[in-house]
Amino acid sequence: MSVWSSLASIVSAIGSGGAQVVDRLVQLVLAKPEGANTVGFTVAMIALSAKMAKADGVVTADEVLAFQELFDVPEGEERNVARLFNLAQEDVAGFDVYAKKLADLFPYDRITLIDILDGLFHIAKADGVVHESEVAYLARVAEVFGLDEREFKRVLARHVRESGDPYAVIGLGPEASDAELKTHYRKEVQETHPDRLIARGVPEEFVRIANDRLAALNAAWSQICAERGL
User: Fold this and answer.
1) How far apart (Å, rounded) are the C-alpha atoms in residues 181 and 165?
2) What number of other Cβ atoms are within 10 A of residue 11's Cβ?
3) Considering the entire predicted model, what is its pTM?
4) Which is it for the CA torsion 137, 140, 145, 147, positive or negative?
5) What is the mean pLDDT of residues 83-88?
6) What mean pLDDT do residues 204-217 have?
7) What is the mean pLDDT of residues 100-119?
8) Residue 59 reports pLDDT greater than 60
9) Any long-range contacts for 122-126 (C-beta under 8 Å, 24+ apart)?
C-alpha cells in the first residue's frame, strides 16, 4: 500500500471531529508496520505543518499548497492531505504534544527527526522567508524531539543562509583542519544522497530535502575553500 493510499485509509478511519487526532493518527500508523516509517514521516509533516500554520496566528491555504508541491501529491489525493491538515489544526492538543507523540514513532532515530525538521523548514520558507515566530516554533519542536542546540542551528543555517556560517552547515567548527573538513564534507554529501533518505523512510517524492541539503553543503564548502585558499 502506497503512502497516499495509507493516508486515505487514515482519513477514513478518523472520520470527523478534531479532538485527539494525533492519538488516532499514531495508533493507525503503528497498526500498519509495513511502511510505517514512510507513513509516519508524512503524517508528522502534515500534522506539524498544520500546527506551525496555526502558531503564526493566521491560517491560510499557502501551507497546504506548499506541502502538496513539496511532496508532489498525486492528483486525487489532495483532499486527504487537506483533510488531515484541517483535522490537525482543529485538534485541542498543542503542537508540543504532537511533536512528542510523533517523535515516539522514531525512537532513537535522530537522523529521521532531523529530516522532519528539515521538511518543516521547507514549508516555513514557502513564502520566501522564515519568520521569527516560525523559527521559535521550530526550535521548540527540535527541543521536544530531543535535538540539541547545535543540531538545530545546523538545520537553521541550511535554510536561513544569511546567517553566513558555512561551518555550521558542514557540521564542524572553524578550528577543524582542512583535512577534517574535507573528510566530513564528503561524508555529508554521501549521507545526503536521495537513496539514503528513502532508506530511512522519507517518501520518494520528497527528494527536495536532499537537493536543498546538497546545495547548502556545496555552497558552504565553496565559501570555506575560498576563505582558506583550498
Assistant:
1) 14
2) 18
3) 0.74
4) positive
5) 74
6) 77
7) 81
8) no
9) 122/66, 122/70, 122/159, 122/208, 122/209, 122/212, 123/45, 123/49, 123/52, 123/63, 123/66, 123/67, 123/70, 124/52, 124/159, 125/159, 126/62, 126/63, 126/65, 126/66, 126/69
